[in-house]
Amino acid sequence: MQDxxxxxxxxxTILPAVALVFSRKSVNSAMLMILSFIGxxxxxxxxxxxxxxxxxxxVYVGAVIVLFLFIAMLVGAGSPKLAKRDFRNMxxxxxxxxxxxxxxxxxxxxxxxxxxxxxxxxxxxxANFGMILFTKYQLAFEITGFLLLAAxxxxxxxxxxxxxxxxxxxxx
Amino acid sequence: xxxxxxxxxxxLAPNGVDxxxxxxxIALGVWxxxxxxxxxFRKPGSxxxxxxxxxxxxxxSLLCVRNAFAIPAGASASFFGGMIEQSRxxxxxxxxxxxxxxxxxxxxxxxxxxxxxxxxxxxxLILLATAGLMLxxxxxxxxxxxxxxxxxxxxMYVLVAYIRHSxxxxxxxxxxxxxxGLSSALLLAGIALLFGAAGNTALPGACADxxxxxxxxxxxxxxxxxAFVLGGAxxxxxxxxxxxxxxxxxxxxxxxxQGAPTPVTAYLGVASKAAGFVLLVNVVTGPLLxxxxxxxxxxxxxxxxxxxxxxxxxxxxxxxxxLMGLSGIAxxxxxxxxxxxxxxxxxxxxxxxxxFYLFTYLLASYAIFGVMSVLxxxxxxxxxxxxxxxxxxxxxxxxxxxxxxxxxxxxxxxMAGFVAKLFLFIAAFTAHLYWLAAVGLFGVVxxxxxxxxxxxxxxxxxxxxxxxxxxxxxxxxxxxSGFWLRTVLTTLALITVCLGFWQGFLAL
Lengths: 172, 508
What we know:
Chain A is built from seven helices and no strands.
């Protein structure tokens, strides 16, 4: 049962992701991304990482994709003129990807993974997660705050209209 | 109640939580917040905090150098449960990054005024990026590594696209964003593979903390043939190769270096590349050292390709920023040679040679980029070699700085660059990496051509307006540059010459 579910959810993750890459419309891409994220969330749930599954749905499906859609609409849903598909490059890239994948699979098949992973007790309850985040990884957590600060300053700076950029020096 | 909570929290915290150990990084973060707030509440017409930021970075850099020599050589201390390790080397690297931050804000002051863009956000982002780089020098844990690396990368995305009205700057920003995003994804996938393998309790030597360098090293030693370990190691290296712009992850260099504002180009080429090398050294001589047998041929091949690509691509360049970028790829190749030697010999002195080379590279590169930002017109991405024609006659001071620095990059004897290159070649020979050293020598010879061509243009080719000057119709325009910038550029050139004669402090 678990195996069958795994394959279903894996297909739900990968197929929309592939379709996303080939889609020519930004709104469609965002929608396909939702599907892919839901598949990932289901895989997390299958691994008993329930907190991650919930976070995946709430943060990515709920917030990030909505932002993507907002941007897509702000920029203009009317499809911009896209360059023609370059089939030669696409074939080349796919070829390289397939070759690398085959190489990886062959390597794993030859040496073997060693052993199957042993199941571990679900360490993903919110309490455990928070405990580790705020004790062991507190430094990384604090740095993330500054990372977001840099991102925020950057977004505000870049999206500010250029003509209003000089007001700081010229306004009297 | 509160004290009890504080006690409980302290008992839960990992060993060695000592926030004072990262006081310089905290100070940089706080200063960045101060600059932002000051800009927000600044009265129109009053001065910003830019000058203070520059002085602040310089003072901190000197302080770190002083601290470094207070630490006995060879001693090291761990903090935050082993995530951070400090020694004399990391302290000097901190000073290195602070110093390049100082130079970047200094050049920024010159260039941004010309372009008519505000400086406060520039300084904030440089401060945050520098803090991230300083942490990178000390990390011994993959989680912290990734977070600190991303802090730097995100600041750099914005800085590269900082000149909002310049199409080439925006293009560079987009290109850097997508390529760097891809490389971060590769790095993260590699870390995840290593984490997954090392956390598998069914394998020998499974780690309790699979992110820690120390534990991973033991695990990898016991599982050298594991496909996940090998794949993870390869992907981690791919992510780092992007940062140092090694072949085949060098394709972004030309456009990004050309489009980014000159001070940011310098920061990318020196500080960001140095951080990549610090990480590479820490990773290949740390957790990945047991994979030496596989990684040494790989790294050597990458080094050979990098040296060849960088030098041959720089050969026909007319745009000076592209020239610096592409020849920077070649320098990354020479540095990789040192890393290979350190791996092969498993001793420390080639690493010292690598860091020394990075320092001489900083001196020469920033001096050249400084001259570039003084000379640049409104569009600083379009400078070509022709703009340097007759520089020696127009302004012999800037010409002299340029000549010394180019000589150092090319590796001409009295300059520091020569000694630094010599150390790397000695390292490669000692490690019996003869092919690598041969290709390196070939590369150096090729590089002399394009560096000297630049020098020739600056010294011998007459300036375009010279005829008119002689005819008395036009006065040669004096090249405006601030007193402090000139002082700093002189200092850089002087250190370059002095280090060529005296390297006693290295004590290889």
